[in-house]
Amino acid sequence: MPAPALTGPQYLGEGLKLILSPGLRLFVLLPLSINLILFCGLIYLAIHQFELWVDAFMPTLPHWLSFLSYILWPLF
Fold it and tell me: Transmembrane stretches, by residue range (predicted)?
């Protein structure tokens, strides 16, 4: 039998209440903060490495292909 349509959002609200309970707060906030720091650091590293790659790659192309640098950044 299919569940009612509001069951998902209702469980989401109950989950948020559980996350904010004092006993689980440490077990939620600590891994979340570690993951956030790692994710931000890896995004910074990826953008920096992509910038270095584009800077090294573009001089090897003919001048008429210089528009590729504007196309590569949104694709990244």
Answer: 26-45
42 φ, ψ to 5°? -70, -35
For the segment 18-41, what is each residue's pLDDT rounded down to a tens digit?
Answer: 888 888 888 888 999 999 999 999
For residues 76 and 13, give the distance between their C-alpha atoms in angstroms, rounded to a whole number.
35
What are the distances in angstroms from CA 52 to CA 15, 36, 68, 71? 43, 24, 15, 16
What is the C-alpha to C-alpha distance for residues 24 and 3, in angstroms, rounded to an integer?
28
8-state DSSP, 5: T
* pTM summary value: 0.64
Is the distance from CB of 72 to CB of 47 less than 8 angstroms?
A: no
**Cα separation of 53 and 44, whole Å?**
14
Tokens in use for 74? Answer: 């949104």
